[in-house]
């Protein structure tokens, strides 16, 4: 990642898994003026500050605030050049029972961040999205889809000469807080592992790779564009076998939770006509722009239609090891 001038970063939800991974990527970087961590939980900020002690980090400021609070965001963004917006409510079943709270944070909160970025004349701002925003069937995915649409129009709202707004979209992160790996680690060894549906498929990507991808895209993104890393996908059966070394005799099938899909998507039928495939990623142009003849013939699903789909347990083990 090439940085030609000193930047001031602000990361919303910066005490989460992705925020921490981004900080790890920025360790030792002398071309950064400072990093601001904007989040609600004072205990998580305290713990993160302790974890960073002794590391060669740029100056870091911890700011207590909620993305629902525009005035606080406006204060926090003064002098910031680059924003990574990770803050969100993310639990799919809980979203089904608390739709308004998810809309307040994921949609209205994103609007607040976007408008505060414009007011502060931030240079570039990246929104962190999810495959669940693509043809969503649950409230969480729908809220992220709305936020994507809003964010992608931000460069127009800024007059075309202000903040550069772009989106990164990806699937399940290996190593993130709340991931399937964490749930497995919490289980007593004598109990069976609860699995929703072993035939369900998901996209998977290691946390450090996501953090690097976000920073690289922030460095070179175009306004209104969406960036998607190429990701391995597999069934839950293969993933559980790779992560736990267990087989069907150790599992308890509990069925799908409210709002869950059998297979996820990263690119839908409408988007393939404005998608450019690169060696390591897909780039989706904004609606109304067709710059390329697309190389995609179908949507990007997490099942065997994904070119990187695998049923090889060793491949997944390599992914877990960061290969």
Structure description:
By secondary structure, the chain is an alpha/beta fold. It has a domain at 7-170 and 205-229: NAD(P)-binding Rossmann-like Domain (Rossmann fold), CATH 3.40.50.720. The chain has helices at residues 17-26, 42-52, 70-76, 92-97, 99-119, 139-152, 154-157, 180-186, 207-220, 236-244, 313-320; strands at 7-12, 32-39, 60-64, 82-85, 124-130, 164-170, 172-174, 193-195, 201-206, 226-229, 232-235, 251-253, 265-267, 275-277, 281-284, 300-301. Helix 1 (17-26) crosses helix 9, helix 3 packs parallel to helix 5 (99-119) and helix 5 runs parallel beside helix 6. This is Polysaccharide biosynthesis protein CapD-like domain-containing protein. InterPro entries: NAD(P)-bd_dom_sf (IPR036291), Polysac_CapD-like (IPR003869), Polysaccharide_Synthase-Rel (IPR051203).
Oligomer: single chain
In the CATH scheme, the class of the domain at 7-170 and 205-229 would be: Alpha Beta
CATH topology of the domain at 7-170 and 205-229: Rossmann fold
Gyration radius from CA atoms, angstroms? 20 Å
Assigned CATH architecture of the domain at 7-170 and 205-229: 3-Layer(aba) Sandwich
Q: What's the rounded overall pLDDT mean? A: 90
Number of helices: 11
Topology, number of strands:
16
Helix residue percentage? 25-40%
Q: What is the H/E order? A: EHEHEHEHHEHHEEHEEHEEHEEEEEH
- What characterizes the major β-sheet? 9 strands, mixed
Strand content: 15-25%
Protein name: Polysaccharide biosynthesis protein CapD-like domain-containing protein
Family: Belongs to the polysaccharide synthase family.
Domain Polysaccharide biosynthesis protein CapD-like: 10-284
InterPro entries: NAD(P)-bd_dom_sf, Polysac_CapD-like, Polysaccharide_Synthase-Rel
